[in-house]
Each structure stands twice: as C-alpha cells, then as structure tokens.
Amino acid sequence: MPNTKHTIIRYQALDKCFRNKSKRYFIDDLVNTCQSAIENFTGNAEGVQKRQVYDDIAFMMSENGYNAPIEKDKMGRKVYYYYSDVNFSINNQPLTESEALELKETLITLNRFKGLPQFEWIENITTRLEASFQFGKQANEIIEFDQNEFLKGKEFINTLYHAIINKTVLLVTYESFKSGLNTIIEFHPYYLKQYNNRWFSFGQNPNFDNITNLALDRIINIEISDKQYAETSIDFKEYFEDIIGVTFDENQNPIEITIRIEKSLWPYIKTKPLHGSQKIKQEQQDYIDICLQLIPNYELESVLLQYGERLTVLEPEALRKSLKERTKMMMGNYNSVYTMH
C-alpha cells in the first residue's frame, strides 16, 4: 500500500483527473494536482513525489484498492492517464478495509463530541463500520478528552446552532443564579463558545447595548420568535483575543500584566502559555517574569490562583489588590474554627 499520509486527499485528486475527459493528465500534472489538493486541504505546501503517485495509481488499480480501470496512452514520448470507463469513480465504490480503519480512527477522535445533538451520527456510523468490517471493539478505551458528559444545558446546543445559522430570534427562559428567578429574554444568537467544560451563547438582548452572554446550564427553555433578526458585524474570534474565558468588559482596553513565575513552575507555563500574548520580560536564576496583554476578568484571576504560591502578579496594582482580597478570604475559610467530624 502507498504512503498513507494524505492518501485519501491524493486519491480524490487523482479520481477527478482520471474522470476529466476534456484534459490529458501526464504524471507531472498528476503530481501538481495532488500537491495543490493537499495544500488547499491542510494549508501546508507539502511536496508530492512521482514515486508516490505511481504507487497511488497501482494501489487504486489493485483488488485491495478500487479495481479502478486506469488506462494510459502515449502522446509523443509522454504518457497520460485516464479511466476507460467514463462512469467510474472511486466515490461510487464500497469502502476498502484500510479506508474504513482510517475513517474509524477519525470517528474515535470525533467521539469527544458524543452527547451533543448534532453529533449523534458519529456513534451510528462507528457501529455500522464495526458491523460491516468486523472491527474488534477495543477492550479498554485508549484515549480520553476532557469533557463533562453530565453537563446541564447541552441539549440546547443544536437549537442555538441552527438559530445562528438561520438567523432566528429566540425567546429564552433563563434562570438567574443570584435571584433564583426565571425570566424570558428576547435573544438574537451570534456565537457559541465552550470554556472550562461549560457552553455559552453570545448574542443581542434588545434591552442592553452590549453583547449578552448566556450560560447554557442556566437555560430552562427556548422558543422560536417571529421577530426580525438583528445582525452583527462582530468578529468573535477577535472579540475573545484580549481575554481569558468568556467575561468581557467592552468598556476596558487590554493592559500589560506582569507576572513572576517560580523556576519550578516555568516549564508548565512555557509549554502551555496563559494567553497568546505571553512574552518573557526577564529570566533570573530563581524566577521568570512574563507579561500578558489582555483585559483582566474573573476567569484570569481564577487561572492565576490555581498556581498558588508559585506565581505572583507584580502589576497592575488593581489586579494585585483583587487577588490579595480573594486569598485573604480563602485564608479566613481555612482559619475558621469550624471543622467537619
């Protein structure tokens, strides 16, 4: 079997060439087409070798491949390739076992989304592949993603997703964790985001000028409204660039935050940066000072506090003060005379 990296992309590219009766494809044309297809799909300009394409053609023609009716003719001293059967396509053929295995491996990775309404098809396809190709089920799971299968509110993801796509206004019954009361909100949904194993939807509530953030685990019910949808020009990828998490104060601008990291903690912060703006300010024997450019919020404070005494905010003073107050309250909790027996 040929080199397996990007095989499906190359097979699809070759299939299109062999079906095209208006053009003759010589080996150099096939190589260039495969290379362009991989670059368009992956974004990487990866070289494809002639030997690789020859191996692909041989495999596509074999019984283990597609039994493809690939013919070749000469034009002068050059050879071009085509299907002798104009109706043939590898997409009309049953999956080969190697393709099915590759597809199943992809589906196993996609199973991280199981439980979400729009991904119910994954489990169905995996089951059908196992039945068709007699794949032995893995006795033990060998990969696990960080997720909360029991999270409340994920049943609304499908409704919100399609409302965003179809530009539909919703009436959301929402429970306030502070008051415990339910309110009905007119909501124009724009974006879905997962953070810390919770889902949030961002959109417009006509009662407020700023973007409204709804936590899905507080949604009680959603109904469709026939009101006119208010569109937005916000690029939400850029919207979240200056914060950690989902809490955004539109009245603030990003500021520089200087943090001192203990030497023993630095390898973890270096390989998993706190934020995309993270840069080293100075490196000493016992510590490293880094700086971030972002808007302080509750999620940032929570992330910083999880590293305990091994991390210290140097600037700005307002953030230092907020963290100091929270650590004082924590100390008070642990110094309390109350203990459980």
Automatic annotation (TrEMBL):
Pfam families: WCX, WYL. Residues 254-330 form the WCX domain. InterPro entries: CBASS_pafABC_assoc_protein (IPR051534), WCX_dom (IPR057727), WYL_dom (IPR026881). It comes from the Bacteria. Residues 156-223 form the WYL domain. This is Uncharacterized protein. The lineage of its organism: Bacteria, Pseudomonadati, Bacteroidota, Flavobacteriia, Flavobacteriales.
